[in-house]
Design brief:
seven-stranded mixed sheet, Immunoglobulin-like, 428 residues, 30% helix, C8orf32 fold, 3 domains, six-stranded mixed sheet, alpha+beta
């Protein structure tokens, strides 16, 4: 306000001096000295006005700066260590006989999905594919050994996954993931469906019998790859979100640290695989619970989220960010107009992600956000599909971009339906 008043004052003074000199000039004409003083006066007053406007600009820039908080610096950053965790298969039975038609099996397939229709549909993206998170339940009277799985899309190109899992009577166990590529453009097909088959061994009377081709069919929903880029502004550590997130995180920081230290997450080595473990811990510990219908978006502390057994997207993200921070890493929360998810710092070499692909036996389309500090891996803590899959409010897009997909040249990603995106450092 002071700067604005000064600018108005100088404008008024300039106006009065000019009018005074013009009036005196009408009376008897201006002398050479008066002309000089006239232009000197204008020059000086213009200098003062310029300085006032510069001061106003600096002041406004200061006010804008008050709306941003200082987050991570280079000295704060920790690069996760590499760690290999390849798929380990159990040895199959030695002696196997052809299928005995007198035997029966009762096997149920459970596929994790990110929609609310259970397994009524499977979602995939042209040019990327669809990911299958496969679990089997043995409800029969015989122990089983699961040998392999096949996925057969209508457009051809069978995908096979080797298995080695004993499944006793009454057990329900995760088998593995499969990534089924979807071509772009998609062939002209009538039925968009996927057939999933298993080869198994059935134990009876001390002998094992092979049964092949137990299958299930599921309809597919296939989304086209877009080549239209969206417009959005990314703001780093805006004061409102920074204070809100970090106040909740700091409230339970000691308790979260204690939980991590007394679990396998806190053995002292912060590795790339421990980030995946943290994601699986949060995903398996929580259910989605919408906010009460009060018209307000209520955020809760990490320990409250654990105690209540769930929360919404912000609560999942705050908990996962807290756990990664307690493990020794650097986490962020990304807030769009309708969603929230995480990003974790991985340094400058994203080839460290190859070991996660080996863990799942996939080629995951990891989304990377790069800034002056390095590379940040996007994590959707609510995803039931696989670590590193696309969050809600994010879509792949054809073409190169600053937000890129690791291992997918010519492809990037973008935020959907969000003109403004807030990136918040979890900073104790």
């Amino acid at each position: 306000m002071v700067v604005i008043k000064l600018a108005n004052y100088y404008q008024k003074v300039l106006y009065e001096r000019v009018i005074s000199m013009l009036v005196s000039g009408k009376r008897g004409g201006l002398s050479a000295g008066q002309v000089v003083r006239f232009f000197v006066t204008i020059f000086i007053l213009l200098m003062f006005m310029g300085a006032s406007l510069l001061g106003l600009y600096i002041y406004m820039d200061y006010l804008v700066g008050l709306n941003e908080r200082e987050g991570f610096s280079e000295d704060d950053l920790v690069v996760p260590l590499s760690e290999e965790r390849p798929i380990i298969l159990e040895d199959p039975p030695r002696f196997i006989s052809p299928w005995n038609t007198g035997l029966s099996t009762t096997l149920s397939l459970v596929i994790a999905v990110n929609n609310t229709d259970n397994v009524a549909k499977l979602d995939g993206v042209q040019g990327v594919g669809l990911v299958l998170n496969l679990t089997l339940k043995n409800s029969g009277e015989n122990d089983l050994f699961i040998e392999r799985v096949y996925a057969q899309p209508e457009w051809g190109g069978e995908v096979t996954g080797q298995l080695g899992n004993y499944l006793d009577v009454g057990d329900e166990e995760y088998m593995r993931h499969l990534l089924v590529p979807i071509p772009d453009p998609l062939p002209d097909i009538v039925d968009r469906k996927l057939t999933i088959l298993f080869d198994i061994l059935v134990e009876s009377g001390g002998s094992w019998y092979r049964r092949e081709g137990i299958f299930w069919e599921y309809p597919l929903v296939i989304h086209e790859m877009t080549n239209v880029t969206s417009e959005f502004e990314i703001k780093t550590n805006p004061a409102y979100y920074f204070d809100k997130v970090n106040d909740l995180v700091r409230t339970d920081s000691l308790l979260i640290n204690s939980i991590v230290e007394n679990s396998t997450l806190g053995d002292g080595n912060f590795t790339i695989q421990k980030i995946v473990d943290a994601y699986e811990y949060v995903r398996n510990s929580l259910d989605y619970i919408a906010d009460p219908d009060t018209g307000e978006n209520e955020w809760i502390t990490p320990m409250t989220c654990l105690a209540e057994g769930g929360g919404d997207c912000e609560d999942f993200s705050i908990l996962l960010g807290s756990v990664i921070t307690a493990m020794g890493g650097n986490a962020r929360i990304i807030i769009t107009s309708g969603h929230a998810f995480n990003a974790v710092y991985i340094g400058t070499d994203d080839s460290i992600l190859d070991s996660i692909n080996d863990r799942y036996g996939l080629n995951i389309p990891f989304q990377i956000m790069e800034d002056k500090l390095g590379k940040w891996l996007i994590i959707e803590p609510q995803s039931q599909l696989v670590f590193g899959w696309f969050p809600l409010d994010v879509e792949p897009v054809a073409g190169e971009g600053d937000l890129y997909i690791y291992g997918q040249p010519g492809m990037s990603w973008q935020f959907v339906d969000s003109e403004e995106v807030s990136v918040v450092d979890i900073y104790f």
